[in-house]
Amino acid sequence: MKVSLANALGTCFGVKDAINLAMDPSFHGDLTIVGQLVHNKQVNESLKQNGVSLVDGIHELEKIKTKKVMITAHGAAEKVKEKLNEEGFTVFDASCPLVMRVHKTIKGMVDQNYFPVVIGQEDHVEVKGIVGDLEEYVVINNENDLEKLKKLGKTKFGIVSQTTQQVEKVEALAKKIMEMECVDEVNFVNTICQPTRDRQIAVHELTDRVDLMIVIGGYNSSNTKKLVQVCESKNIETYHIESASQLDRAWFDSKTHVGITAGTSTPEYVINEVHEAILVIAEKMNELEKSATAN
Fold first, then answer.
1. What's the domain range around 211?
2. Which of 30, 76, 208, 277 is spaced 20 to 30 Å from 235 by Cα?
3. Which one of 60, 86, 126, 287 is the catalytic residue?
């Protein structure tokens, strides 16, 4: 059995920068992250072990016991940062620059009188940050949501995307909006980030060569879920795991080539642990095959 890693996988620069900032020893235990810094349980456990506190969101201000707080890599609305400042906290911003580009893009569209539309998951923290300072907006996650646009009485739309969406899905939905009879003008900027694109392209290429895919990343990680969807769209048997301990030896029976990928919030050491564990399985399977052939 052969084992291959995707050409692009694992943590992106935005995640690495956010983790490095939160782990800075100068905080000396005086830091609370408002939300999950990144959607990965191993990272969040490491933060806790380093004296960093976490709260679910700004609605839990009463739980914050430190003077310093941090905005997550997913970004936040300006009014959230203002609220934290008003409450007397010193705010450190770990927002990914590519997420903040989406904030800037959608606000620019509104200034040009486009009605703002975000393609993504309405309940995702990144999307909440993107729309948090807008007076009105619509979030589209599937074709059924297009009905929302028909009811608006608007004809001029500015469209952006959550950075971790699946490329084909975003482009298809944007095209559907452009073709709607009620729409006169569309300004579409595909704001899926390059690291997400690179990982999806790498998975597309790898799934042409394998008969099993292992996708590593947090179960609440949007970009990791999109990698799973890409694999499944290619009709490849796929398993989404968070750690090597979740691997099942039975998955690999009769498989000849296993592919491995990981979301942009998955640390390198977690990928290495899974890779090494699969290599051990592969070695044992190859030994059994040789033994069976010899007999």
1. 2-9+194-294
2. 277
3. 126
